[in-house]
Amino acid sequence: MELRIRNLSKTYANGVVALDKVSLTIPKGMFGLLGPNGAGKSTLMRTLATLQECDSGSVFLDDIDVLDEKDAVRRLLGYLPQDFGLYPKVTAHEMLDHFAMLKGLSHKGRRREVVDGLLQQTNLFEVRNQRLGGFSGGMRQRFGIAQALLGDPQLIIVDEPTAGLDPQERVRFHNLLSDLGQDKTVLLSTHIVSDVADLCANMAIINKGNVLLCGEPQKLIDALDGKIWARFVSKHELAAFQHAHAVISTRLLTGRTLIHVYAERDPGDGFAPARHDLEDVYFATIAGRHQALALAR
Ligand SMILES: Nc1ncnc2c1ncn2[C@@H]1O[C@H](COP(=O)(O)OP(=O)(O)OP(=O)(O)O)[C@@H](O)[C@H]1O
């Protein structure tokens, strides 16, 4: 299914503009929504998940009016919120069975089939009789996906699902999501660039309620060819370089500071062409390098 968001706006009572005329088209497959903390991602996710009202704009899931036909959307939606509580003393199987009942799966045999299937799909079958309170972060997130998948949703929204997972669990969770992306629309909100680089066929970057950039990750990277330059600087040189160049990122590498700058042509000063990636796209966009944006759009 395709999700079409047009001019979606939301200002909270305290005056914070969380969404400012956001327009995005999200096709089938995995779509990454990338942005720093406070960008408006959760506001957008909650609005799409019919849990929160916006002020203006429209959202359609194929021909369903998401803002109006909430029940129809909920039947097609699986949602994994950023924070969700679990009853610590209940086992994974008991909890999922309970959720399945709430979803209307009243036939015991059929429910068992669905619940066991989801526990297998999320690699939790072996631990199904363990209490949720003892689950690791990764197990919790996979359990969150299992409950989101009840009812065979066509649109799956996951809000920052890999924050706090160790690398092994992250890979496991990525595999699970990418399987889902084969035939469903999966919207992944994250501030972790590599989640999007690894998984998503399409992406957008949002900040302060605005969509800054949208496209296919590789094309957005290619649009920066020849425009990202790198060099090491010492700590006391950093401020001068930041003053003289459009520094988009600084990172410590084996104790030295590597800086990446945006420049249309060789900036001199000892810079060499950088091997750039999606992080450069992200940082260049957030830093407001408008030349980069114009090219990549
Ligand atoms: N209920 C609320 N009332 C007032 N302001 C809010 C409310 N919820 C969010 N905000 C503000 O709206 C802005 C967008 O918040 P939102 O949670 O949507 O961003 P986010 O990109 O999901 O960030 P994070 O990654 O930190 O969750 C932030 O400035 C936030 O402080």
Automatic annotation (TrEMBL):
PROSITE patterns: ABC_TRANSPORTER_1 (PS00211), ABC_TRANSPORTER_2 (PS50893). Residues 3-233 form the ABC transporter domain. Keywords: ATP-binding, Cell membrane, Membrane, Nucleotide-binding, Transport. GO terms for molecular function: ATP binding; ATP hydrolysis activity. It comes from the Bacteria. The keyword NAD does not apply. Belongs to the ABC transporter superfamily. This is ABC transporter ATP-binding protein. It comes from Massilia glaciei.
